[in-house]
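Predict the 3D structure for this chain.
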Amino acid sequence: MSEHEQDPALAPASAGRGGAEDAPRAHLDVREQAPESANEGMRRPSEGRDAAARRIGVYVCHCGGNISDYVDVQAVVDAVKGEPGVIVARTTMFACSDAGQQQMEQDIAEQNLDGLVVASCSPKLHVVTFRGVAKRSGMNPYEYSQANIREQCSWTHTDDHEGATRKAIGLVRGVIARTRLTEALDPLVVETTQKALIIGGGVTGLRAAIGMADIGLGVFLVEREPELGGWVGKFGPMFPHEREGRELIAHLVEEVRKRPAIKIFAGAEVVSKAGSFGNYQVGIRVSADPPETISAEVGSIVVATGFDSYQPAEGESGTGLDGVITLPEFKDVIDNSKDNLRYNGRPVRSLAYIYCVGSRQPDGNQYCSRFCCSATAHISIKVSELDPKVRQYHLYRDIRTYGNFELLYTEARKQGAVYVKFPDDAPPVISVDKSGGLAVTVRDLLSGDEELEIPVDLVVLVTGMVPRKNEEMVGILKLPLGRDGFFNEIHPKLRPVETMVDGVLIAGACQGPKCSAESVASGLAAVTQSASVLKKGFAELDPLVATVDPDACTWCGKCLTACPYGAIAQLSLNGREVATISEAGCKGCGGCVPMCPENAIDLRGYTDGQITAMIDGLLQEAMA
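Done. Predicted structure below.
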C-alpha cells in the first residue's frame, strides 16, 4: 500500500483516527469559529427583535390555476392583510416567475420590508428561489418563510373549495406569526477537502472518477468486486451505439489508470464515516493479506453502486424448467454466439420473451424498469442477425421503448418478431408439452382475445432491475431509501443527484432503473455538483441547526441517542458535563429537541416560540 501512504489524506485507521473522540470537526470560517461556551455562541432567534415592529410582505400565488382553481386566493389576502406586522399583501399569478420576483424585490426596497412570506407550492421546489429574492433586495434570506397551500390545500381538498380556503388562511397566518419571530442569520461557512470518494466501479463510477480528476479533484474509487466494470463489463454490443460493453469498460479503466489523482481500491468496502459535510473521514477496508483499513479524508461522496437483476422464485413464470432463462442469461448467450443460436448445445429455432417478470406486480415490485423493453428489442434484432429463420414471440402487457429507442422496436418488428399483448391479470403460462419441449399458453388481446399455445425451444424471462442490497453501507452513510428500495434523491428534477445528507450524492442505477447513457449522465451531474462546492474550497450551510443552553443542560444523554447524524457530543464545561452540537454535522431535523427533559435544546428558525406562534395563528381560523 505504499502508493497510499504517500497521500496525506490517507492513513491507516488505527493510527490515532479510529475513535469517536478523534472524529474530525468541520473547519469553520473565522466568522463562525466556535467560542468556548457549549452552545457555540448561537443566539435565540427571537432575541432582541420587536415582533410588533416587523414589516412583512405576503404574496399568495395563483400558480396558474393549480391553487386558485380550488382556493380563493383573494380571500386569503383579505384575511391576513390586517395581521400585525403585515405591510404588503398581494396575489400573484406565478410567484416564482421573473415578474413575480421583481414585484417582491420592488416592494422590499420601497416599503423597507424585513420579512417575506410566500404562500405557494412546496418549499422543496422554490426555497432557494425566494431566498435569492430576499438576498438580492438586501433582506436577510432567512427572514423568508413559505406556506405550502398547493400540496396541502388546493391539491388535497379539490372537492371542498371553502374548506381549502379556510385551511390556506390558517396556514398563512401561522407562517406570518413565525416570521414575526425570525431573525437575521448568517450561513455556516465550512472549508472543504478537494477530494471525493466514489463508491462503485461500474460505468457510472468510472466515468465520474475521470470527470472528477479532469477538473482537478482527487478521487478514491472503491469497488466491492475484485475487478472494475460492473454489469457493462460483462456485455457485448449494447444499444443504441452498438459498442461492446467489455471494450467500453476496458477503455475507461485505461483512462482511469492514466490519472494519478485517482486511487483505485478493488475488492474493498467502505466501513465507516465520520466528520461532516466538506470534511468526511471514511474508512476503506481493503482485502489484502492481511486485510487493512485505510482512512481517507474527502469533501464529497458519490454512491454509484448499481443494481441487481431480478431473480424469479422457483416455479415463477416457469423458472426451474429446462430452457427457461432470464434476460441477462440470454444476453450472455447472444454475446457468445458466432454463427447460429444454440442453448446447452441444442439449436434454438423458436423462442418466446415474457415481459415484466418481477416488474409492475401488485404484490411485488410495482415500478417499471424502463430499460427492459428496449434491451429485449435490441436482443431480438441480434437474434435475427444470427439467424433470420428463428421465430421470436414477444409476450407483453405494454411496450415502453421511450425516446429514440422506439426505432429498435420498429426494427425488431420489421425483421419478423411477433408481438402478442396479454391481459394484466392473465400472464402467460409455461408448461412442458407431450414431446418434452416447452409450450407457452397466452391470451392475445390483439386478435380477439384468443388463447394461443406457442411451442418454443427457449423462454426468456424479461427481468428488470432491483435495488442492490448493502445494508451496512446504507447505515454508514445514512442514505434515504424510496418506497421502491432504491436510493432517494431530494427532487427528481431540481436536485436529481443530491440526498438529504449534505455532500453525499447518488448516481446511476442505484437510484432507479436507467440505461447506461442515463447512468453516465447522472454520474457527470454528481461530478458537477461536487465540483461546484469543492473547487471553491468552502461551502455555505443552512444555519437552521439545533442549539444548546449550557446553563439548562444536565447531560442525561437522551439527545445523543436521538440524533441520527452523530452531531451531538458530551463536553466538559466549567466542571459540568453538557451537550454540544456540531453546527456542520447538524441537519436541523429537530429530533433532539423534544427528547430533552430540561428544555435545553432549541432549533434555529423553528424555536419553541415560533412553533407555538404558528399553532396559535393556525387556530385563529380553526376556532372561527
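Confidence is low (pLDDT under 50) at residues 1-6, 11-48.
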